[in-house]
Write a structure and sequence with these properties.
Blueprint (H helix, E strand, L loop, with lengths): L5 H35 L6 H24 L3 H7 L1 H34 L3 H9 L2 H20 L1 H4 L4 H8 L1 H16 L7 H33 L2 E7 L4 E7 L13 E5 L10 E4 L8 E7 L3 H4 L11 E6 L12 E6 L3 H7 L9 E6 L9 H11 L2 E5 L12 H7 L7 E5 L2 H13 L7 E4 L6
Parallel strand pairs: 7-8, 7-10, 8-9, 10-11
Antiparallel strand pairs: 1-2, 2-5, 3-4, 3-6
Helix pairs in contact: 1-2, 1-3, 2-4, 2-10, 3-4, 4-5, 4-6, 6-9
Main location: membrane
Cofactor: FAD
InterPro entries: FAD-bd_8, FAD-bd_FR_type, Fe3_Rdtase_TM_dom, FNR_nucleotide-bd, MRET, OxRdtase_FAD/NAD-bd, Riboflavin_synthase-like_b-brl
Amino acid sequence: MIAVAQPFVAVRNRLRMFAHLAVGAYLLGNLAIIHLLFLSVTPAHNVFGQVGRLLGLYLAFMMTVQVLLVARLPLLDRAFGMDRLTGWHRWTGFTVFWLAVLHPSFVVLGFARYDRVPVLTTAAALSRQVPVLLGMIAVGLIVVIAGLSVRIARRRLSYETWHAVHLLLYVVLILGIIHQVYEGTAFTINLVTRIYWWGLWTAALGALLTGRLIVPLIRNRRHRLRVAAVVPESDDVVSVHVTGRDLDRLQARAGQFFLWRFPGHHRWWQVNPFSLSAAPNDRSLRLTAKAVGTTSAGLRDLPIGARVFAEGPYGAFTLATRTCRPTLLIAGGIGVTPIRSLLEDPALGSDTIVIYRVRRGADAVLLGEIRNLTTRRGARLHVITGRTGPGNQPFHPPNLLRMVPDITTRDVYVCGPHALTSAVLAALRKLKVPSRQVHAELFRLAG
């Protein structure tokens, strides 16, 4: 195995270690403070009230964690990758859901037990208090968002609809903060607790506003992105070339993606994550997308000169994460776009193998470019077509090993549909490819 330059590996490892320590310290430190606050408050009338109060503190804290994940902090993105962070966002969301359901349930049970009245009567009486009612509305919105985020429901929604529903999270935040201010005993017991909770929320909301609004506005004002060309690649795939000023200051890398908006052509809330399909430079960026939703289907109608608003770059699917020089790039369908851009990265060596999996030859978009790049680089290219079946299982471990006998000595990058990516990752585990050499772009952000 030929190792990559050790300074880069050492820097990346230190970054990951620091990020792990920072995340661990943040979570454990705040949970410890929350328990101290809980113990300092006068106990509730019974165990149900006590449990409800503690769950409320957990809920408030997990909401701040969710805000930090939505803020897309650069340190976490570089250390873990946006794909993994989006997975954390999903599980944090379901944690918030259960806490939002259990917290009011235990509180109502506690009051009902203390007053010796039916639970529904207690709930109705509490709902007549405005701060409590706002909290109940927030819980209802959380239930709606969580229900539509379940995989079976998510698959029935377009990305644009799913994203629009998630904008309700901001309404939940406002309602939740108001509820905490007026109903949270542990939040207002003394000056120290007020400083702590407001500091926590200020840091989270400050990170959100900075990362998702202020920085993107500054960057887009600086770079003034515009559509330079729209090139159909097939019946349902199109490439959009974007130009602007001083694009090298974006510090984008091959393999990364942006969140793209096209003001004036699409609604302001319509945003999609599209990978760069060519290595970025100081003059242009290129995205290539398949028509799977309203926004992506409308890209071929973009007028030349149309404004572009981009957030990013995001993602750790880059050669900066490599541990060794020999590389295997695996693409499926439109997942070829970040693979195509990686082929232009100067850091990629000639000892590279590319596997491109499509159902039909006509589905192999950008194939001509990939062939030219692999030929120029001296890399090997395998294009595999046909339906997966008994006689065509390229990612069955023995078949993958037959194509790439030295696979355990290579860094492997895979991007494609969920079924393909899952099959490749399962095969790599069976072939005992070290996990540090496996890099997958699952695009949980889009799905």
